[in-house]
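Re: Re: C-alpha cell formats

Sure, here are both.
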Amino acid sequence: MTSILERLTGPADLRGLDEGQLAVLAAEIRETIIRTVATTGGHLGSSLGVVELTIALHRLLESPHDRIVWDTGHQAYAHKLLTGRLDRFDTLRQLDGVGGFPRRSESEHDVFDGGHAGTGLSIAQGLATARDMRHGLERIAVVVGDAALMSGLSLEALNDIGHKGTQLLIVLNDNEMSISPTVGAFSTYLSKIKLSTAWQQSKSAYDGLVERIPVVGGGALEWSQRLRRSVVNLASPGQLFEDLGVTYIGVVPGHDLHALLETFERVLELKGPVLVHVRTQKGRGFRPAEADQVSFHGAALPPIELAPNADAHDGASRTPATIGPATPHGKGSNGDAVPPAAKPDAPSKPPNYTSVFADTLVELGKTDRRIVGITAGMPTGTGMAKFAAAYPDRSIDVGIAEQHAVTLAAGLALGGMRPVVALYSTFLQRAFDQTVHDVCQNDLPVLLGVDRAGLVGEDGTSHQGMFTLPAQRQLPYLVIASPKDEQELRSLVRTAMAQDHPFALHYPRDPGLGLPETAPVEIPVGRGEVLAEGRDVLFVGFGPIVQRMAAAAAILEGDGWSVGQINARFAKPLDRQLILDAARGKQLVVTFEESVVTGGFGSAVLEAIEEARTTDPAYREVSVRILGIPGDRFVDHGSVADLRRMLRLDADGLAAQVREALEARRATPSSSGSPAAPAG
C-alpha cells in the first residue's frame, strides 16, 4: 500500500484527511526526514520539531495563494515534503538536488530564498503591506524561531507590525524554552478566552458602552482598558508583544495537532497582528535528537545507523536508529546545517581550521587575560565553546546579534581588552556597518575570525562565504590575512594579537592537512612567502587554495612550464614588492582565491601590476589572470568538492584555466622547460 505522503499531490489534499490520518502522515514525514538526512546531512532536529505545525498551517491556509514565510528556512523540510518534492527529497542538499532552505526556483510554495535568521518578520510585513495596498485577500503567516525572534531585525519588524496593526499571523516556534519558562494553566485558559467570539464581541460592546457615559466616559474607558491590560499581562508571558500592539496567544502544545488546528483556525479570524506561541521539541520522534539537541541541529551529525520496521517512538516515527558517540560541533542557531553523517568506520580527519583557531586562542589566553571571546549564537560551530570552557569569565555569546557582537567588541577594545569575534563569513555580512563605523573608523585592535570563508557546500546560496573579502578590502586600517595551512593559521592568530589594528583572519570549514605541529611565530604584517622560483609564469595565492595552486603548478610543469609560486598570506596590506619582483618579465601572472573575483585579492594584485606598468617597461607585456568564484551569480548547494569541480577551482580545473589563458596569449614555455626549483 502507498503511504498517505506518497498519495499527496499538494497541500490542498490535507483538507480531505481526518485528524487520525494527519497523525499517521506526521509519522511518515518524520520517517522520511530521518532516513534522508542520515544519508545527505541536514537540519534534522529543527525540521522534526515542526512537523505538526507545518501540517496544521498547510491544512488551514491555501498555499500558494496564501503565503507562508519560513524564517531561517532550515525548519522547512516538512513543508517541502507537503508541497510536491517527495520524489526528489533524497537529493536534499546535493548538487542539482533539493535545497536545504526554501528556494523560489524549486516551488511556487516557497515564498523567499532565505537562510539567515531574523529576516522572516520583515519579509512577511512587506508581503502583507503589498497585499493591503492592492486590496488583496491572501493571508500571510510567518514561522519564526525563538532565537531568531531576538535578533535586532526581528524586533524592528515587530515594532512596525504592531504600530501599523498589520493583519498577519506570526507563529513563534519555541523549542528552547527561552522566551517564557513559567507558563501555567491560567495562561492557557486566558488565551482560550481571548480567542472566543464572546470575548471579542463583549469587549467591543463594553468599550462602546463605557465611552458613552456622560462627562466621564472617555476617562473611564481609558482606565478600564488599562485595568484589562494589567490583568491580561499579569497572567500572560507575552506582555512584550501585547505592549507592541501584537495580540499574544499561547502557549500551544506544538505536537498536538487538534490544539494547533483549533487555535490557528480561530486566530485567522482575528483582526490585526497575532502571535501564536507554540512550544515544540527539537528532534521530536527521534530519541537521540531529543536527548542531544546541539549535535543534531548543525555542523556535525553523529553517525546514524537505521534499523527498519522497528517500533515507533510516541507514534511519531517508524525509523529508530542507533548513533555513535555524540561529537557536538555546533548548535547553529543561524542555520549552519549538518553535513552527511560519517560512516562509523570512516578514517578520522585532521582537525579543521575552526578547531585549530580555537585551540590557539585558548593557548594565548593562558598568558593574556585581555583576550575576550565573542560569538553570535554559534559557540560550538565557531569553536568558541572551547574558549568558553577554559575562560568562562572572558567569553560572551550575544545570540543572533552579529551587529551587537562587533560593536560590543569595539567597546571592549576601547576599554583595553583584546576582543576576538568569531563569526561565519556569511553572517559577518550582517555587521558591515559596525565593522566600518565602529571598529575600523576607530582603528581598534579587534580580531575578526572569519570562519567558513570560501565555499561552504550543502547549505547553498545563503551560506557561501564568498563576499566578505571584497567588502573588507576597501576598509582603512583593516588587515586581511588567510593561511595556506593550519600551522600558518596558528602563526597568523599570534600575529593578529601582537599588533594594534583591526584584523580579519579568513579560514575555511575544511579539515587541515594533518601537518605536524610547529611552534607558531609572529609573521610581519604584509609579508608574503616565495614557495618556488620560476621563469615563465607566476602563481600568487591567498588562503588554503594555495595547496591546490601548487598542485596545478605541478601539472603545468609537466607540460614544460617553469612556474613561480607565492603564498601571499595577506590581501591587505599586500606584499607588493615581493609580487612585483617575481612578476617582472613573466608571460603571465595568475592569482588564486576562493572568493568572488570582483574586487577581491586578485584585483589587488592586478592594481599593483597596473600601477607598475605605467612607469616600468618590464611589466608592459605581463598579463594577469584572476581565478576564483565568478562574480555574476550565486553558488548553489552541493558538496564542497562538487562545487569546486563545477567552478573549476580544484587542481585540475585551475590548471585547465591557466592553460586556456596561456593559449589565448599564444605563449610557449622557456627553452629549457625544466621544472621550477623550490625556493631556498
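Second one below.
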Amino acid sequence: MFKKILIANRGEIACRVMATARKMGIQTVAVYSEADKEARHVAMANEAVCIGPSSSRESYLVADKIIAAAKETGAEAIHPGYGFLSENAEFSKRCEESGIVFIGPKHHSIAAMGDKIASKKLAAKAGVNCIPGVNDAIETPEKAVEIAKSIGYPVMIKASAGGGGKGLRVAYNDKEALEGFTSCRNEARNSFGDDRVFIEKFVEEPRHIEIQLIGDSQGHVLYLNERECSIQRRHQKVIEEAPSPFISDSTRKAMGEQAVALAKAVKYQSAGTVEFVVGKDQSFYFLEMNTRLQVEHPVTECITGLDLVEWMIRIAAGEPLTLKQEDVQRNGWAIECRINAEDPFRNFLPSTGRLVRFHPPEPTMFQGNTEQLFGVRVDTGVQEGGEIPMFYDSMIAKLIVHGHDRNDAIAKMREALNAFVIRGISSNIPFQSALLAHPRFVSGEFNTGFIAEQYAHGFRAEDVTHQDPDFLIALAAFVRRRSRERAAGLSGQLPGYDVKVGQAYTIITLDAKGDHHHTQVEVDDSMGRHGTAIIKVNGKNYAIASESRINDVAIQGTVNGQPFTAQVERGSVKNPLGLKLQHNGTRIDAMVISPRMAELYKLMPFKAPPDLSRFVLSPMPGLLVDVAVKPGQKVLAGERVAVIEAMKMENVLFALQDGVVKSVVATQGESLTVDQVIVEFEA
C-alpha cells in the first residue's frame, strides 16, 4: 500500500480523499493556488505545495507543476478528484511515465471514453443501447440543420469534449438548430479547445440515471446500483439520490449489466460512472462514461456501505475486488443537495466573498466512515472566515442524508437544510428547500425538465410556500419576547424608563409586492417554564419551547410538541427592531413592535428607491470579458450589452429596453463589484 499520495485538486473533494487516506494510514500532500493558501484542504494535509497563481489555467490544470510537486514530496501516487485533470488521458499517461501511480483508470480507458463520438461507437459495439443520431463531427450549421431534420426534432446538439452542461443545446426547429450549433461550437472551443459537435435525438420526458461501477486490474467489474440525477438546472445537477424512485429492478439489472459490458470493453479499472438517459417507458440509452469519481458518489456509499475512495486507492495499488455482484447492498435511501455560492433570487448569479458565518448541521455520518449510516453528512472544503473566490466553481458543500426510505430521507434533508447557516454570501439553500417540498419531487414524478418547467420565469420568494406561514409570525413574536425578557432583567434601569416586556405585539411583514402587513399577536407565558410561551396568531395557538440562546442563528425547539429548526437574524443598522426568519426555505422580514408603535409607523413617509433603469449594473463580482456596445449606439431590448465571467461561467447581460448608449463606464478586463455601473443610457 502507498505511504504517501498527492491530491491534485482543491475544495471538498480534496478533503474527501484526505479523510479516507488518513483512515488508511496514508500521508497526504495538498497542492494549492495563491487564492487557496488559507483553504481547508491545505490545512488538512500533511504537506502542501503552492503550484501557481489563482487561475486554474496556471495552477490546477498544469500537469508539469503537479507532477513536480509529487516528485518533490516523495508522493507515490496522485488522486485527481473530479474536474481539472481527472479525465485527462495525457495527464494519466504522464504520471505513469514519471513512475507515479495515477489513482484512476488507465490512460487508454480515459481516452476511449473521453471522446463522446468515439465512446458512442465503442458502446454500440459492446451491445449498449445508444440514442439515434449522427456520431461524426459536423462541419457546418447548414449540415447540422439537415441532420437534425432527418433525425426528427427535438434534437440535442453536443460538443464532443463537453461536460458540466457546457457545449450543449436542445433544438426544436431549424432556427434553434442553426443557432445552437454555432453556440455549442464556440463554447466548446473556448472551454475545451475542441470544437467538434455532434447531434442526437432528444428523448422527451427524460430521466438522467447513472450506474456506478468499480473495476480492478484483474478484469473484475461490478455495478453498485444507480443514482437518480434528473433534478438539474441548465444541465447542472442540483439534487441526486440513490436509488432511483423510477426504475424497476429489471431495468436496474439491464442498465447495470450493459454498463459492466462497456467497462470491460475498455479494460476499465477504478471507480467510474456510466450515464444513461431513460424514457418514460423505461427505455434507456447510453449518454457517456465519466472516468473519475463523481460529485454525487456519497449517496452510493450510503446505500452500499462501501468507501469508493478507499477502493480507488486499493485498486490503484493492485489489490483485487473482494466482493461479488450479489454482495452489493441496496440499504435505505440517500439524498445529496449541492450547496452552491449563488443567489437563487437573482437568477442564480454567482456569489463570492467571505464566509462571515458557516455552520453546517451537526453531522452524524463522516467521510471515509461507512460504519455510521442513517444520518447527516457534510462534505465541504470551506470554513468560517474563509473566502469564496471567483476563480473556481460555485459549489461550497455537499449535504448528504441517509434515511430508511425516501420519505424519511426527504424529511431528514429538509431539517438539515433548516440548520445550515451561511452568511456573508448568498446560497441556493432556499431553492433546495423549495424543491424538496414540491409535490412532484415528493411523488417522484419528475424528469430533467422539472426545474425549467416549474420555474420558467426564475425562482422567486413567493415560489417557496410555507405550509403554515403563521408559524413564522409566532416565532418572530417568541424571539422578540425572549429578548425583551432579558432586557427587562438587566440591572441599573431608571424607574419609569425600564424595559417593559409586554404581551401584545404587532408583527409587520413585507410581501413580494412591497406591501406591509400588520398582524396582531398575543403572548401567554403562563406555561411557567423558562423558554416557553403560547403565541396566539389569527385564532391559532402556537406552544413554542426552545432552549437556544438569544444570539443563536439556528434555533431549535418544539412547536405544539413537534420539533423544529429555524434560522433567525436579529436587527441591523438600518432596522434594529427587525428580524429575518427562515424555515423550510421560506424567508420573512419582520418587525415586532408594540401596537402603539405600529400605529405611528403607518405615518412614516415612504422613500422611493433611486431610478436605475438608465444603467446596466454588474449583478455579481466578476471579470468583464466583453462590452458589446459603444457610446452613441442605439440598442434594442434584448440585445447583448456585456459579458461577465465568474466561477468558470460566462454571464451575458442584455438590454432591458430600447435606448441610446451615453457612455461605457467600465472597461474590458476590469474586475467588477456587485452593482458597479458598466453602461449608462441617455435619459
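Residues 509 and 595 are 14 Å apart (CA to CA). Residues 132-201 form a domain with the Dna Ligase; domain 1 fold (CATH 3.30.1490.20).
- S.
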